[in-house]
Amino acid sequence: MADGVKVSGPETVQSDGSMRVALELMEKIANFDKVPREHRDPKYWLSLYLKCLRATHGQSLEAVLMEG
């Protein structure tokens, strides 16, 4: 647990920030993904988001797509 961590106010999500772009990319990919909805468990969503986040941080698409 993180002792001594304080939040002084509400957090904001920038519309052009990498986390926001990764979230929107994840949503777009999920709309076209052929994985059945019943198999879209938390691991699916977190893995997809992590791949999208890595892509927004400049990791090559080949490297991102090779991840399991």
Report what the structure shows:
By secondary structure, the chain is an all-alpha fold. The chain has a domain of 33 residues. 53% of the residues lie in helices and 0% in strands. α1 crosses α2. The longest helix is centred in the middle third of the chain and has 15 residues. The radius of gyration is 15 Å and the shape is globular. The mean pLDDT is 85.
What brief labels describe this structure?
single chain, 68 residues, mainly alpha, 3 helices
Summarize this entry quickly.
Helix content is 53%, strand content 0%.
Poorly predicted parts = none
Quick check: average pLDDT? 85
Q: What is the helix content?
A: 40-55%
Q: Give the beta-strand count.
A: 0
Q: What does the overall shape look like?
A: globular
List the SSEs and their pairings.
Layout: H1 18-32, H2 42-56, H3 61-66
Helix pairs in contact: 1-2
